[in-house]
Amino acid sequence: MTIGVILPPLATPPSDEYIVQMVVPVSYGWSGISMGGQMTNSLLVPFWPNGDEIVLGPRWADDYVLPTAYAGPEITLLPPATVNSTHVNAIFRCQNCTVWDGGSLGSGDLNGTAVFAYVASTMTGVDDPSDVNSSFMEHDYFNFFGMDLSAAHSSLYTQYVSGGASSTTAPPAPSSTPATPSSTSSAPAATQTECGGTGWTGPTVCASGLTCVAVSPPYYNSDDNLQTIYTKLTQKAFAELHGKPVRAGYVKYEWNNSFYNLDDGMSMSSFCDG
């Protein structure tokens, strides 16, 4: 799975839109992204293939149940969004998408740090692929990453919207494959989130001025704001943030208006410190 996010240049008043790219294996039943880094009270965008078309739409949930259609955001597929024999390449413009019920992108700072979550149902498809409001089963894979939004603003934004700029030049977020919960990135160090940890196979070089420091469970992080959040979490909660599926009976841990699920037993890790 590969994920990229790009924003328009900073302006006053700030823009309410951005572009997201997600590339996933065509074999996945459905995939998606949470723009607030959690399932509840966050803008969710699930998508899936329907033949050679991509079906996607905004959803929202106030509990750990099937998210329902969410009015307000306007989502438009952009070229070269496509489905081929191996992958779904979903590139979409999301307008009226920086603020939603219960939250906002980057906690309201479009030049700060945003936490995202990405999910996939690697084996089970949706009930009706032709219906954007179709029901589907819970995902069997998820993970989290943080992003320095100051590195995601681009003067080429209008060209991306019109399809006139190559999507490969947009600063992507880290990419991952669900088979092994690790990440690699071709993005600048400023957008890198993990930097090491038990089982980590991705980049170990932090952004300029930051040093990878061991703290607790898998993996590490190179972002100051995320460091503040993660160091407040227990080891169990941090472990849950990095690869444990949500299941009934988990204890909810509340931090910074977000819910994280606790579970037992993960090994130690770290992240970067300024």
Give a quick rundown of the structure.
With 274 residues, the protein is mainly β. It has three helices and 20 strands. The strands form seven sheets. Strands 1, 2, 8, 9 and 10 form a five-stranded antiparallel β-sheet that branches. A five-stranded antiparallel β-sheet has the order 5-4-3-13-14, with no helix packed on it.
Number of distinct helices:
3
Shape: globular
For the CA atoms, what is the radius of gyration?
Answer: 17 Å
Instruction: Please identify which CATH superfamily of the largest domain we are dealing with.
Output: Cellobiose dehydrogenase, cytochrome domain
Derived from helix and strand composition plus strand pairing, the structural class reads mainly beta
Low-confidence stretches: 165-193, 214-274
In the residues, how many domains can be counted?
Answer: 2
Total beta-strand segments: 20
From N to C, what is the helix and strand string?
EEEEEEEEEEEEEEHEEEHHEEE
What portion of the residues fall into strands of 2 or more residues? 25-35%
Helix content: under 10%
Report the CATH C-level class of the largest domain: Mainly Beta
Architecture of the largest domain, CATH level 2?
Answer: Sandwich
**N-to-C terminal Cα separation, in Å?**
29 Å
CATH structural fold name of the largest domain: Immunoglobulin-like
Q: Report on the biggest sheet.
A: 5 strands, antiparallel
Mean pLDDT: 72
